[in-house]
Amino acid sequence: MDKRSAKQFIRINERIRAREVRVINDAGEQLGIMPPFEALKTARERGLDLVEVSPNAVPPVCRIQDYGKFLYEKDKSDRAARKKQKIITIKEVKFSVTVDEHDYQTKKNQAVRFLHEGDKVKASLRFKGRQMAHRELGYAIINRLIQDIGDTGIVEFMPRMEGTTLHAIIAPGKKEVPKKPATPKPEAAPQPTAQPAS
After folding, report:
1. Residue 163 burial by CB count (10 A; 0-12/13-18/19+): exposed, middle or buried?
2. Model's pTM, two decimal places?
3. Mind listing the pLDDT tens digit for each residue in 59-96?
């Protein structure tokens, strides 16, 4: 949704259609429930706007504030939220039924690298012509890959056929927190045995 569309979804001033609204002033204090025209009058007296901040509440919540400043703050918080998001992409690794060992190892290492980088991996294998009669060979390759990847990945979609292509989706595994080595406890010094009095 672009900024222009987002602005259209935020109702302000005369656009607020509710019969009653809960009003919060510019200092964050609740002014109570009142008709929108009364709330708008209060906002106008302060040279501010009436902005619907929670339209789904019953009654909707409106805040008396500077609309331009509200949009600026909202844009700022949206940008901060986007920065924190990790965009996960799906990287594809393609195999063939006749894949040789060296090629298999190269593609397996590629898949492991993608998973370490936090991306999902789509392992796909396309059957050509008569190879469709030997689907078990394709399943064997994809299942071997899943086993070889081990804890580095979690299978999100088990191998399945779509047309002439067999594919599975593997998501990055949970990163393990390295355990601290256990420090050996110092052994207690042997207690001296009491010598019998002579």
Report:
1. exposed
2. 0.47
3. 999 999 999 988 888 888 888 887 777 677 889 999 99
